Amino acid sequence: MSVDLRRSGPVAHLTMSRPEVHNAFDDALIAELTAAIDELDRDDAVRAVVLTGAGASFSAGADLNWMRGMAGASEEENREDSLRLARLMRRLQFLSKPTVARVNGAAFGGGVGLVACCDIAIAAESAKFALSEVKLGLVPAVISPYVIASIGLRQARRLFVTGEIVDAPAARSMGLVHEVVPADGLDAAVDTVLGLLGKGGPVAQGEAKRLALAMGGMTDTGMALVDTENAALIARLRVSPEGQDGLTAFLSKNRPSWLS
Q1: Beta strand pairing status for 3-8 and 11-16?
Q2: Which value, in Å, is the radius of gyration of the alpha carbons in the chain?
Q3: Nearest CA among 58, 242, 21 for reference residue 135
Q4: I want to staple 59 with a disulfide (CB 3.0 to 4.6 A). Which of 45, 99, 111, 228 is the partner?
Q5: In the β-sheet with 3-8, what is the strand arrangement from edge to edge?
């Protein structure tokens, strides 16, 4: 199993469990994480959800074998693949329970998307963040609405085009995470937030979350339409000459042609 789901009273702990590959995304992880989120959404006994990664990283983004599949797939296959990832992000964003990202280490690509989709994000001081898709001739398409909602358009424009790595204090200053704590204080910080969440009415919290998202211009229905457009965009780029060049160079540990 790629995902470990553990309940502790009213709190569900959802752990991406592929530490040997830094909890990178593949088809199984995406499917299992989506199914777990759907299950928790239906469970009235669950009051809050904590999302984290096993081992040293939160999530390193795309798995290498998954990326090889992208490089060799058709545009239509890439579009369907992207829609599955988009649904995961959308289900997490609109989960009816409060969500807490326990960012225990590096979060790259789609891992940043997961952080952005959680209501509250607490990161270890050692955590690093990057949206490095442009280095592959790609863009962070399906996660873009959630990242922009978290850090704002100005910051997103920089990170989208540079692909640079930012540290945890920088991520906090731009709004991607709410708190940065020493690694050995991460659980205590999460527990403090869970204590605050436990004092609110569950129905009110669900409505408050929907209210905030709606006032920010986000609805589940509206985002489904955006997902369709963004999945088409990333699919087109993956099969484009530049995307193929970038993916092939990365997988073969060579330099893409634009760096030659």
Answers
A1: antiparallel
A2: 18
A3: 242
A4: 111
A5: 3-8, 11-16, 48-53, 99-103, 120-124, 179-181
Specify the amino acid at residue 163.
G
Which residue blocks in the chain are alpha helix, DSSP H? 27-42, 64-72, 75-93, 110-117, 144-151, 153-162, 168-173, 186-197, 202-215, 220-239, 241-251
Cα 245 from chain centroid (whole Å): 25
Identity of residue 16:
M
Helix (H) or strand (E) holding 25: none
Render pLDDT for 20-69 as a digit per residue (tens, 0 to 9).
999 999 999 999 999 999 999 999 999 999 999 999 999 999 998 898 99
This prediction's pTM: 0.98
* DSSP designation for 101: E
Instruction: Report helix, strand or coil for 52.
Output: strand
In the chain, the largest separation of any two C-alpha atoms, in whole Å, equals: 58
What is the DSSP code (8-state) at residue 28?
H
Task: Return d(Cα 214, Cα 20) in angstroms, integer.
Answer: 39
Q: Which of 95, 15, 11, 109 is nearest to 54 (CA)?
A: 15
The alpha carbon of 94 is separated from its chain's Cα centroid by a whole number of angstroms, namely 13
State the angle between helix axes of 220-239 and 75-93 in degrees (0 to 180), rounded to the nearest 10.
150
